[in-house]
User: Fold GDP-mannose 4,6-dehydratase from Sediminispirochaeta smaragdinae.
Amino acid sequence: MKKALITGITGQDGSYLAEFLLDKGYEVHGIKRRASSFNTDRVDHLYKDLHEHEVRFILHYGDLTDTGNLIRIVQEIQPDEIYNLGAMSHVKVSFESPEYTADADGIGTLRLLEAIRILGLEKKTRFYQASTSELYGLVQEVPQKETTPFYPRSPYAAAKLYSYWITVNYREAYGIYACNGILFNHESPRRGETFVTRKITRAAARISQGLQQKLYLGNLDAKRDWGYAGDYVELMWLMLQQEEPDDFVMATGVTTAVRDFVKMAFAEAGIKLRFEGSGVDEKGIDAASGNVIVEVDPRYFRPTEVELLIGDPGKAKEKLGWIPKVDLQELICMMVTKDLQDARQDVHLKEGGFTVKEYNE
Ligand code: NDP
Ligand code: GDR
Assistant:
């Protein structure tokens, strides 16, 4: 039985990848951080009582900033594959916590690669690094592909740039089977609530159910190449099953502005929106009631922005036979459906006199 170790297993991608690898018959180990409240919502359904037989899903306490901890976990598991998905993954937050982001997202990758080397696992353990389209930053070329020059525009992207190159370097220097997946944005009903897509689908659902009045957003002009996370984890695995390690872009090849995502998501929740005005005065108006339900709040602007991302998945298609299956309309439908279910549950709770949780980001 193959063993995989996933950092970031409690995150969006970690949860889909764990499901995928369990289906493939792997023993799946994951690193979770100690928190003062439960943080394993996304993987709770995979968890079995450790006293049962044939437990193939095992969580270990750890942190990418803790060298000794990582070495001990890798030594104990002796994994065939490591998927390094753990990261402080919010671009805007990285401007507020740049040093921590560099430590977890940059040096954390080095710590794992060093663990492989220190433990003499160079020939056994294959390594996947969660690289990102944020590396492209300021537009140099579109669509962006494996050969497009990088120009990071945030502490997050700068830390991930270090991780990209240290992964390449350990491959070349020590012969480790190490790959970068340069993933463009990918979303799902499990996406964190403060990323723009989930913030929008959640607000569309809650506004349609009378639970929220307005949605405040930042840059509506930014364009992203949005895919479905469930599709992308298959490519992470495929990348580690080849004869030779290599780096691949994963994208849909279609780009959409935040504003258009808003329109599509609200339409899915039954609200027709039109936009009026420009810049910070732009507003989204409910065509039926005439109410302003979307406003721009400069609080969400970033000191430096990535305006346009559109990826070319040609190499992954050709060499790995990978094509994303879910398009943006289906993805939005999936996300709004889940958020409508949650919103309706909250309506029932409110009617029963209970308080429901609010999010302000
Ligand atoms: P999430 O934010 O959903 O998950 C991040 C995971 O990393 C969580 O499990 C989190 O734990 C964990 N984590 C954070 N800091 C640490 C730390 N110091 N030590 C150990 N674990 C830590 O991200 P996604 O699932 O969306 O993304 C997965 C990876 O792919 C990330 O590295 C991200 O940067 C990268 N990426 C994501 C893209 C996307 O569009 N989703 C696109 C390109 C790259 P906890 O649950 O405790 O917070
Ligand atoms: P991104 O995702 O920065 O691309 O990073 P995010 O969803 O945060 O932003 C996408 C774009 O939307 C604009 N935007 C807003 N963003 C947020 N979060 N909140 C808002 O209110 C808002 N209004 C407009 C942003 O300015 C931006 O242009 C994601 C993360 O998953 C990274 O970890 C990953 O590496 C990249 O995708 C690829």
Notes: The radius of gyration is 21 Å. The pocket of guanosine-5'-diphosphate-rhamnose (ligand 2) is lined by residues 89, 91-92, 132-134, 185, 194-197, 199, 217-219, 222, 224, 258, 300, 302, 305-306 (CB under 6 Å). The chain has a mean pLDDT of 96. The longest helix spans residues 328-351.
